[in-house]
Task: structure prediction
Amino acid sequence: MSKGVVSKDEDYSQWYNDLVLKADMAEYSPVKGCMIIKPYGYSIWERMQAVLDGMFKETGHVNAYFPMMIPKSFFSKEASHVEGFAKECAVVTHYRLKNDGNGNIVVDETAKLEEELILRPTSETIIWNTYKGWIQSYRDLPILVNQWANVVRWEMRTRLFLRTTEFLWQEGHTAHATPEEAIAETEQMLNVYADFVENWLALPVVRGKKTANERFAGALDTYCIEALMQDGKALQAGTSHFLGQNFAKAFDVKFTNKENKLDYVWATSWGVSTRLIGALIMAHSDDAGLVLPPKLAPLQVVVVPIYKHQEELDNISMFVKELTRELKAKNIRVKFDNRDTHRPGAKFAEYELKGVPLRVAIGSRDMQNGTVELARRDTKTKETVNQEGLTAVIEVLLEEIQSNIYQKALNFKAENTTEVDTYDEFKRMLDEQPGFLSAHWDGTSETEQRIKDETKATIRCIPLDNKQEEGKCILTGKPSTQRVLFARAY
RNA sequence: CGGGAUGUAGCGUAGCCCGGUAUCGCGCCACAUUUGGGAUGUGGAGGCCGCAGGUUCGAAUCCUGCCAUCCCGACCA
Result:
């Protein structure tokens, strides 16, 4: 984008912000750290929701909704959980405003809540408080519930889509009779996320487990998918937690098992958020604007007429009317942009900025030749193709674009994943060619912390498919049995 | 919360040192000519110069305080 979008190489952060704002995905709001998701951005979220929701249902889950406000006392019940979230909670203390007589609206101090309410940073507490009433017997298990919701985390520094004070997400909360079943659920949902991100966002991920340092507050194990952005930084795209019996114990959720013994319930939770939209933008886009994978693009094909006179437009419109009818019959999202108020060049630039995968341009010359001009957003290439059979060509091209975008990201990930064996090399790579660094680590939190302090790189995950091999920790030289994945992260 | 920067029309900006109510571009509106990569011309509309104080005859400009946003840190499933 020559107009108004900073080049990716010049200033990656600025480029990203420009894209979000200029492509009409979102804008800043009057509330610090909170953004307004505009219709174009929200329609991507709606598509993500629809697909994920289908996958959740397919795996046996049902949706429910729990309150946005949680009694403060709930948070003190699980020690590490409160530790993890206390510093970023928004607290509701009053329930009424009043006019102070000088025309100012002030908080009515007489309307102070006896117990403060917390705007949920996540819903484990209120949900497990609820599950206590739902579960008595193994016959009540499993409970496989998901919630689509907003949550609030008062982060110090926010970034559009990637980390906002309020964000939209889904959170699954399941209850099981055995640890094996809960772990299987945790892994299943991680795979659902990985499939979704790879197949729909066209973004390859690494599946892995977090180290103790990076684990979710209250979890025994946190599984995650990690993606690599174009600047070589990693982005956690989704997490799935095995919570053990921590929340069941905290909220006293017991059940009678088949052996007629009382036991605490085993739990999982898992979530992905509107951060995925940020990942989508960062992973594929270029200096001309967004590059959206066809499967998630709100608009897959845009048709731009080029004409001098009304009768030419009428002629083109007749053809396009039939074309759009055919495309829509194939469930292809198409728009005929016949606005007379913008010239073709302006439209081309606009749809490139917005990442529409395919553009069809039709002028009188095409109408005479029985052709159209077909332009791909991902490769920025144009070709002239016959009107005859165009629908089938478009259908194939959309699939090709989807896989091309994925392949490109896959290549990028491969090129920017490096095995390093010394700390010097590790530091050099971080500075010269940031990306995933696969290295040996002695397994201690102290070493992990020291590497983080010294290099800002964290262990993104211990990959699930890790091969076991002898090695020495890059920092301490102590023996190690496998490589872990380091990177600087968002 | 620390460091840096910025707040002037919808957006991007000039003016600030050296005080006299504001420049230019994009966008917007009207008309005409245009339409195969961000059109051109003519005319027009749009401003409590971030907010609050202070200095002054007079403040976008000087002083004080505050607020907001962005970037870099710290922080962050």
Observations:
- The mean pLDDT of chain A is 93.
- The longest helix of chain A spans residues 390-415.
